[in-house]
Design brief:
The complex is a heterodimer of chains A (180) and B (319). Chain A is an alpha+beta fold and 180 residues long. Chain A has four helices and six strands, in the order H-E-H-E-E-H-E-E-H-E. In chain A, strands 3-2-5-6 form a four-stranded antiparallel β-sheet. In chain A, strands 1-4 form a two-stranded antiparallel sheet. In chain A, helix 1 runs antiparallel to helix 2 and helix 1 runs antiparallel to helix 4. Chain B has 319 residues and is α+β, with helices and mostly antiparallel strands. Among the domains of chain B are: 159 residues, no CATH class; 41 residues, no CATH class. Chain B contains eight helices and 15 strands. In chain B, the strands form three sheets. In chain B, strands 3, 4, 5, 6, 7, 8, 9, 10 and 11 form a nine-stranded antiparallel β-sheet that branches. Chain B has a four-stranded mixed β-sheet with strand order 14-12-13-15. A two-stranded antiparallel ribbon of chain B has the order 1-2. Chain B is extended, with a radius of gyration of 27 Å. Chain B starts with a helix and ends in a 6-residue tail after the last strand. The chains are: A alpha+beta (180), B alpha+beta (319). Chains A and B meet through helix 1, strand 2 and strand 3 of A and helix 1, helix 8 and strand 15 of B.
Chain lengths: 180, 319
Amino acid sequence: MSETLSKIMALVVSMFLFFIFPVENMLTRQDDITKVIVLNKTAEFVDSVRNLGYITPLMYMQFSQSLSATGNIYEITMEHIHSSIDPVYTDPVDMTSFQHYYNVNARITYTDEILDRLFPENPHEPSDRYYLSKGDIFTVKVSNTNRTPATKVQQMLLMSELPVKRIYVIYGGMVRDENN
Amino acid sequence: MKITDSAVLFVIIALPFAFMMRIKTNNLQNVEYKNILLNRYLDTAVEDASNAMIIRGINDRITISKEKAVEAFYQTLYANLNITGDNTAKQRLNAFIPVIVIIDYDGYWIYSMETYTGMNGEKIQEMLWKPKKPYVYEKDGLVYLFTLDDYTTVLDIAAAKFYEGQREVIVQSLPDDEIIQDGELFEQVRKRTIAESIRSDVNTAINEHNKYAKLFGITYQFNPPSISDDDWQRNIEDIGILSFFQGIPIGLGGERFNSFALGAARVIRKRLYYIEQDENGLYYYHRENCSDVSLKDKVYDSREECALKGALPCGKCNP
């Protein structure tokens, strides 16, 4: 009786050691490498935006395509902090109330608005570049929204829910130039 | 053999591999991170250098100080790498920078290693400025001296004559010259001349640098970077600084950091803004390429200037 039990136990343990451990290990490494690729691609995209001073629809498409080539689904969040130079009026509709000085205000544009400019919902509106100004801050956050294979295997082993976010990259900086 | 035994044997064999894979991917992550970091440092350094090199004198006359540029470049680099007070580390870092180019309006300077004999007869090796080189192109006995815009000097050797000015101005003086006559060809030749002359000097300097790198104990083989013709021509459009970084070891697996950075001082290209009244009677200022701009009668140089006229930023082009 005990002979059979130990045999079953041995079988279970060796199954784990033979198959599940190598698979889990390999998938975790794959996640690590994906992280490197995502960081690399994000840095490339953000740096080209910072150097050019605009985002074209093609640039964004190429960026998202290179991310999806890693086999995961990502959420891309963009943030553009624009220092807007606004004249000061006491009454905005009365031109004579101009105070003869200006304020520098930070105006933040988020992903939806930027994407709406690049890929307009209204088909009659031409898709356009999104322009940034020198000195603005542009940040991109990328995180995965699907469970990576490694997470799935680990969940199975631990029999509990694990956080979805495995690949998380933030990259940003100041816009260095404006081009037309 | 029992199944448990073979399982244990398998683990003994597989574990070192798994362990090594983990170290390798960690190293890969580290290398990538360092690559991005060093690129950032290099960009900041050339940016600071290009800001520092412009000196505005009386009547807004602009002069270029190459010494100030290089000083700012190294200072920022040292500050970022936290070696400002460490002379040995500075010297070691300097050995990885084979060449710096300062691009001026009508020529360029190369800053690279040179050997010379000192006052007491000893050999001295240090980074030195080479004399300024103009952007020269020679064809059919005519010598063209180009600049970063279309201001050109043409020297006719046989006739011993000078023609100097904007291309549109000298176009009458040289009726048979196809380069001056054809605007497109002129641009092509000009851009190629500038890129080619800088490229050949950079390559020579980097090849030369191998000799000196050995003295610093660097075994890395310095190679001229492979940058396409297009990239050269696109990058060099304005007064600026171009610096090359090669061979900095950044990983366990012999990975090296190779990069170049270009900082432009942006004195030639100018930003323009226009103010226009909309249908509600409010004034807005726009970028020059905004689709809402219809009449371009008065140009403003800065956004601040527009705001002081009481104009609001346009919501479309977001200036």
